[in-house]
Write a structure and sequence with these properties.
The structure is a homodimer. Chain A has 16 helices and twelve strands. The first copy, chain A, is an alpha+beta fold. Chains A, B: This is S-methyl-5-thioribose kinase.
Chain lengths: ~425, ~425
């Protein structure tokens, strides 16, 4: 394994940015790739997708199959060289994807080839999958999604936690991701800090949300709450989290779900992944009114997406608890302290209490992830594709209203039903503009 | 800096256990040492102290000065080769001592020389300091102690926390201590696990405490509480903690305080250090009745030691808060989110809430540290030197009674005065044997 220090060298000497011709020549000499694509390299089709925020992404197709090839650039692709970002993120992404692939092989793309020097990974091409967020904007329903995503979260989080790992293995794992701080810093700044203060990169649907944005910049209860969440993100090494688990990092068909892009992975609070997902489902719900073509034409979708919020938490909790009951090989909660029937019963009560604490974290992080997408730098198409800005702002204001309550009154949300009930109430709230 | 992986090699090829002659020859060729000791190496006096639980400790004296030389053995000295322990602990101790020496130079021994290959460190000889625990058993009072130890704790903890460090620097620091898992494992087993179950190494003052020990092994509320503390120890990377901050790791005179032996150091919960200290002061208080020669002859000492418990927390909290107000250079609680007078006032309220949460942690860890010293493997002379076993067990039972309450009803202890009040009540409790 590459050490953290090596991986952090931002531009290893063998690194070069590949154009289409370079990539073709490079892949032609990579046996795992040629086996996958088949035929002659000269006839492979290679297309740079052009929609990565951070990286180059090529779709490569041959007679036998296809690949997605992702190469990290030494800067943020969307912004350019003025925003440098270390190539080491490709190393951490590969490490995380390997971990996830071991635990949930059907739910992530298979790795075909990884080149640390080029910060390049070739993966199974996901076809005909689409980015889930696009499907949600279109009002599509994914009946298999809850089962898949909760399996992904429960397994990747549980098996990297103190409930499954020895303390020594966990400390080594924490250290192996410690170098990924540039990516963590993006989260720390853009999610937990900038939306709550004047920051050049912030934007929102003006002029409608001007007042709300100003109120949030002055809401000190909210600033305390988000600072506590940030502290948890900085200091709670609970499990290997994906770190960016929104609906743009998930590719779906009616029957399949694949989680991609774990380059923000590190040992952090589990609630951050759960909250990221819940937040993005809730935003799909609030944005839905903005995509309504005829009155009620999104009703089935909205009912489904809110039910999915409910079920994502419930099924995740069930599966996590089930793993804990069956595969508790870690150093936390040693079984020897809970012997016999009485011990088992008491431990079960504590498991429920543990999940209740995790739920509280998830509620807080849900709120943080909503607020950053509406008032911070990075927005999402759920809202952005609502062309009428007043209509869009109405949807966004409703989401912000829920988020503010979730973050400041977290303790009053003791069940996922309380969250979806509050979401349903906010859905019909009319902001005063 | 030696990398974590290098330091973990348990027996580097240049390692050898030094006898007195080896050490003399080795030190004679070490300029920093010869400068400190003066004269001819042939005439230095070298004595192996023989009281280290884990390591060899030599006192070396020359005409100009003295040194303490500590060499790690590849096993636990007290037990022998049947209990291997990696030499890397000398590396982590040196790293921690360097950190502490930078932040609290008057409060730790100065390092004169460190040899990673030999797992050896030569330090300033502390004379006429004695191990504080011995002084407490003798009923001595240390008026300067509170001020010193709270400065040590506040500065070493604050400046390694997210309140002072950037997230990147903190992650690197966490990684640099991640390899110290063998020492952490000792804590995990001996403090958070074994005293609560049947374990070969457990011992207690039989037959008097047989029933109490059995009750604690069956007390499921206590097992849940200690498991939560263990989980915090495993997953809360709050600051670089000493990891073994009891009164046997502190050397004192009337006017000086030196903290030694930080080989258990790693990034863990701050409350563990605070709790270790409070627990050991409370044990000195409970043991005092057992050292009473004439009725009331320890009253002044007991009043002082309980007042010290009060003041240690209060002064620590004051100093930590003062550092936070003046030197908050870390990524947590960004000042830009708390602008103006209203922001400053709200942040101050949150600082108090932060300290209240830290206090809760400290109360729990205090309890864990008391219980392990009475029912686990490692006992302390506070109690052990009370020869009459019934008298000793009475003192121990009182301490256990307090500890049980502190751990299970932690939330009801909202101030240090509540803790000392409960201690005073337990001091006169008569166990039913």
């Amino acid at each position: 394994m590459t050490t953290s220090a090596e991986a952090r060298q931002s531009t290893p000497s063998d690194y070069r940015i590949l154009n289409e011709t370079d990539l073709r020549n490079y892949l032609a000499e990579t046996p795992a790739v040629t086996a996958q694509l088949g035929g002659s390299a000269d006839h492979w089709s290679i297309t740079e997708v052009g929609d990565g925020n951070l990286n180059l992404v090529f779709i490569v197709k041959g007679p036998s199959g296809g690949l997605a090839v992702k190469q990290a650039l030494p800067y943020v692709r969307l912004v350019g060289e003025s925003w440098p970002l270390p190539l080491s993120r490709a190393h951490y992404e590969h490490l995380a994807l390997t971990h996830q692939g071991r635990l949930a092989p059907a739910l992530v793309p298979a790795i075909v080839h990884h080149d640390p020097a080029l910060a390049l990974t070739a993966m199974e091409l996901l076809e005909p999958h689409i980015i889930m967020r696009k499907g949600l904007v279109a009002g599509s329903i994914y009946p298999a999604f809850t089962d898949h995503i909760t399996t992904f979260m429960a397994r990747t989080l549980f098996f990297s936690s103190d409930l499954a790992l020895s303390a020594a293995a966990k400390k080594d794992a924490i250290a192996s991701f410690a170098g990924n701080h540039a990516l963590c810093k993006i989260t720390e700044d853009l999610i937990f800090t900038d939306p709550y203060r004047v920051a050049e990169q912030n934007r929102w649907t003006a002029p409608w949300l001007d007042r709300t944005a100003a109120e949030i910049r002055e809401d000190l209860d909210l600033h305390v709450a988000v600072s506590r969440l940030k502290l948890k993100f900085l200091s709670s090494a609970e499990a290997l989290i994906h770190g960016d688990l929104h609906t743009g990092s998930i590719m779906v068909t009616d029957t399949e779900t694949k989680v991609i892009d774990p380059e923000f992975a590190f040992y952090g609070p589990m609630g951050f992944d759960v909250g990221a997902l819940l937040a993005n489902l809730l935003m799909a719900y609030f944005a839905s009114a903005g995509h309504e073509q005829t009155p009620g034409n999104r009703e089935v979708f909205e009912t489904w997406v809110l039910a999915t919020v409910d079920q994502v938490w419930s099924a995740f909790a069930d599966e996590f608890l089930s793993l804990w009951r069956k595969e508790a090989t870690g150093d936390a909660y040693p079984p020897s302290l809970f012997p016999g029937e009485a011990g088992a019963a008491r431990l079960e009560v504590e498991r429920q209490a543990y999940m209740a604490r995790l739920f509280q974290d998830a509620v807080g992080f849900t709120a943080a992830k909503i607020i950053r997408r509406i008032l911070g730098l990075a927005h999402n198409i759920d809202f952005e594709q609502i062309e009428d800005t007043k209509r869009r702002a109405t949807c966004e204001a409703r989401a912000l209203r829920l988020a503010r309550t979730l973050m400041v009154e977290t303790a009053s949300f003791t069940s996922i039903e309380a969250v979806t009930r509050a979401a349903r109430e906010s859905r019909y709230w009319r902001p005063g503009f």
